[in-house]
Protein 1
Amino acid sequence: VNVFYRPLEKINAVIETYPKGIAGFRSFLDLMATEPDIADAPEARPAPPLAGHVRFEGVSFGYTPGRPVLRDLDLAVAPGETVALVGPSGAGKTTICSLLPRFYEVEAGRITIDGIDIRQMTLASLRQQIGIVQQDVFLFAGSIRQNIAYGRLGADDAAILQAARRARLDTLIADLPEGLDTLIGERGVKLSGGQKQRLAIARIFLMNPPILILDEATSALDTETERAIQQALAELARGRTTLVIAHRLATIRDADRILVVTERGIAEQGSHAALLAADGAYARLHGAQMQAG
Ligand code: ATP
């Protein structure tokens, strides 16, 4: 399904309807950096190649004692399914996604992938199979080749160029006099926000993980760039178990399933059409978007 390729009119209005949480946006890298306690269990084994059957079973979690964010959450995502998480700021969408790569430890319940508790897998083997696309793109000073190959060290040029093509980055590379050898960063070419995002997407194509977490951008790029990125993301999600943290309803209409996450848990779930017909929380969010637009 073409989840991400959507016209972008009216989406800014939706963002405005979500109050800004005090925590605001935190990058997954930040999360990793602030969580030194998580380590391999003594009995942890490298995960086998995963199909991506994700299950949260009775999961409870909070960042501070006495302030639970998730209570007894149950969620099953089939291999290849795209599930979009929508809902008010602070409801726990990012938190749900942060638990899957084990940036935090569940307090109760468990998370399994293909039936294996993620605590039984080594962290490296778990995280190697979860691609994360977020707003903040981590680039280092070096060539475009090196920056894409960060997704799979040792990848050859053919694989790198194929990933770039699928990420809609190939025309940019072709236009640069030094192609893949073009240096970026401080002393090299400065990439635009949209180009950086496509570079990040190219990395994940190269990484080829069975599971994907997409933290959708809160602000729109120009329409042309946005369309290229949405197309690339739709292609990236195809065949992978995908969790989308959605800030804009317009981009997730074609998700296999939409979950409305509130402080009380999953309030509602279903397809876009089914949720509109149910005339509940999602329909209200959608109505607010239409009106605001
Ligand atoms: P948004 O749409 O704004 O991204 P969200 O639905 O993703 O919101 P979370 O970011 O998961 O919500 O936040 C859920 C709750 O946990 C909020 O009350 C938030 O303030 C709190 N929270 C999130 N991250 C942390 C953290 N690192 N430390 C303490 N509290 C946190």
Protein 2
Amino acid sequence: HRAWPGLIEAYRTRMPVAADWKVVTLLEGGTPLVAAPYLSELTGCEVYLKVEGLNPTGSFKDRGMTMAVTTAVNNGKRAVLCASTGNTSASAAAYATRAGITCAVLIPEGKIAMGKLAQAVMHGAKIIQVQGNFDDCLELARKVTADFPEIELVNSVNPARIEGQKTAAFEIVDVLGRAPDVHALPVGNAGNITAYWTGYREYHADGISDSLPRMLGVQAAGAAPLVNGAPVKNPETIATAIRIGSPASWNQAVAAKDESNGQFRAATDEKLLEAYRLVAGQEGVFVEPASAASVAGLLAAHADGWIASGSTVVCTVTGNGLKDPDTALSGMPEVNAIPVDPVAVADALGVG
Ligand code: F0G
């Protein structure tokens, strides 16, 4: 038995990391591929959840950030900057702390989940709220890092991010012994679909898997530029993590869809919330609202026949449900506390 060494060490030969580099890691990756019996029963498919909320800061961003911060530090950078809907900033803040460098984050005013903000605060990031959306923040971050090259941009336009995140595809093939028939995931800025497709292709080219999955990229209906085929000026969705109107990796996402014979689809907030509650309430896995897009996409694609029963399907659930307690608790009725009394408990349970 050996402890999980973090994804750079686990996949060292596939990572662009020099032998003498000091690796910045919180032992990210190695997340479980959890069978989803309720979804499997419902669809007649073999469904698995790749539970990325179990990474060190609670999202898949840690896979990219171990690579991005390792690369930055070993190239002599003393500061990192990102635009973020919350998870990237939480991850950047943690890895920058680990590396002993400065982290600054640009976030859309009032539109990030509470848990994510708490993480950036606790890791000591310089938090700058911007009067704009994610797309505005990313444009700003790109301009600032172009003017100040000593600051490294750690959004997914940084190629090291994609290299780190491709390892999720490796892990899935390593567990299943082959690629799934369909891989569903939420799409926002489109770095992650780019990364998964890179990973699946790499293993396929090296003969480690003998097939490739069809990629199912799922966006929120109010923020679905790839589905519409045009940028969305004012994206809106309850799934703030993917409230993005102009994905930076647009071309790579389209290539992943086309080359894999895949599909983009949109899910309404109502369908996202339905899937969000289903995953927590039926599978026992608490994810954040944006993460449930993969499951909403599976259900819709199965209903219209794009995914046939009998298929093996992996849904990436990208972030931990604890990040967004407000959405979880919204609509919960006020309940009065009971006296310290077993009869009162029995009454409350309706077994009195
Ligand atoms: N799911 C979650 C929970 C996310 O935080 C993100 C992106 C995505 C899915 C979409 O991934 O951008 O690679 O297509 N969050 C970024 C952030 C934008 O700033 O944390 P993508």
Protein 3
Amino acid sequence: MENPAGLIVLGREGGCGSTWGQSRSPMAATPTSNLPAPARFAVFDGDLDEEWAALYAGVRALAVDTEAMGLIHGRDRLCLVQLCDDHDNVCCIRLSRGQAEAPRLRGLMESPAIEKVFHFARFDVAALAENLAITVQPLFCTKVASRLARTYSPRHGLKEVVQELVGVELDKQAQSSDWGRVEDLSDAQLAYAAGDVRYLLPVRDHLEAMLRREQRWDLAQRCFTCVPVMADLDRLRFHLLFEHSTGGNR
Ligand code: MN
């Protein structure tokens, strides 16, 4: 890596324009995003720097998302980890091939004082364990919370949940794209990656209120504590372990 600090900070206070990915180079001039620029935005290689680790160390909750080469743990490596706090400080950590640890990220992910908020935590928790030996806790899953709270809807994808609860339209076009050329991600990919974490904390708070109102808050908490177990079962290829019939020798 030519730039171990790997830090590019842009954002509203940095005075960059509406295309908040534009000052990174070399990059195709792809249209970025319909979303407003974050308060701060940084891209790191390998791990957070000290400043951002300290910035996040004091928060009550962190939104977390990851992008990988695919959905198979052990086969498809983790490429990107995105974080956002409740002041809209967003960063993306680009992981290199074969990278096995990220100590500052790990410190945050394992801190008992910081709730880590994911949409479908089961995947990200397994990916962080598999790739970076991180044991995430405590955590909140907005997909599980949505299923427990929004029983009037069959739609619990991030796009639908953010749209309904926060009124923001996420662009998911970059969802299935090549995250492996991590040093050369397009503006559109970075904007997409950032968008996936920027509205998670407001969604989380809406869902908490709904769960409390429907008296499912305690059940939700207990579901969240099961997520690391399910993630470990996924990594070991145990499917349908709790089903009466597994439909075959699995
Ligand atoms: Mn994502």
